[in-house]
C-alpha cells in the first residue's frame, strides 16, 4: 500500500484512508513534468506507467524502479521521455459480443459435451479448448448471475447450478465473463489424471499479460460461506489461493504469481485486479489452487476449484 489520504499531525502522518497500491496522475498534453509523493518505505518495485493517445489509440509506456529504500525528503528519477518505439498497446479480452455470447451454455455440467473452444482472434490471440466434459476442467464463457449464493436453487445438490454464476456479472458492468474449473494435487492427479487448465496464444508468440480481473463464483462462495456435502465453511485459519504459472514457447516455466480468493472468513465477492506482468513473456498460462489444510480431506481439496475472470489485458 503506497497511496491514500492521510492527515499530517505536525510530527507524523495519521491513519491512511482509502489505501491503494497505485497513484494516478492526470497530466495535460503540454505539461513537462509529473510528480508523485510516496511515504518513505522499502519497496521491492515501484512502476510508473504513462498513458498516451497516439492517433486515436491509447498506448502506454512503463518503467520500474527496483528494490530501494525511499528516504524522506529525497527525490528519485524513475523514467525518461520515451520514443515512439517504446510505446505499447494494451489489447483486452472482454468476452463481449455475439461470438462470445453464443458460447454460453445452458448451464449443464457437461457443457459442450467435451467439445468446446474459444479464440480471441485478431485481438489478444488468446485461445482455450477442452475435449472432455467440463467437470474434468476447462474455461467456459458465462453470463449467469445469482445474487443469493447461500440458497441452493434445487435442494441439497443445487450447487451444480452455481458453478457458472457469480453474484455481480461481468467486470465493469459488462454481461459476460469466463469461469475456470480444474486443479491438480497429489490425489486427483493420480486417480483422475487431472491436468492444469489455462489459456495460450494461438499464434505461438510469447507476450506479457499485463493483468486480468478475478472474483469468486457462487459455487465457491456457497461452499466457503455455509459449506456443502464435501467441504466445511471457511474459518479464521482459511487461506484459499489461485496460482498462475507462465510458460514460454518451449514449455519452460517463466514464473508464477498468486491471488487470494479467501482469507479467513472473508471471501472475495467483487472484481479485483490481478497483476500478471511478473510472469514475463509467456506462450501460455496455467492455473492451480493452494488451499489451507482445513479445505483438504482424505481425497484432496474439497473446496470447488473454480474462479471467474474477465478483461484479460495483453501488451502489444
Task: Report the count of strand segments.
Answer: 24
Please give the alpha-carbon distance between the first and last residues: 28 Å
Radius of gyration: 22 Å
How would you describe the oligomerization state of the chains in this entry? single chain
Give the SSE string.
Answer: EEEEEEEHEEEEEEHEEHEEEEEEEEE
Q: Please state roughly what percent of the residues sit in beta strands, choosing from under 5%, 5-15%, 15-25%, 25-35%, 35-45% or over 45%.
A: 35-45%
The percentage helix is under 10%
The largest pleated sheet is described as: 9 strands, antiparallel
* Count of helical stretches: 3
Average of the residue pLDDT scores? 87
Question: Any low-confidence stretches, pLDDT <50, length ≥5?
Answer: none
User: Structural class, from secondary structure content?
Assistant: mainly beta
Q: What overall form do the CA principal axes indicate?
A: globular
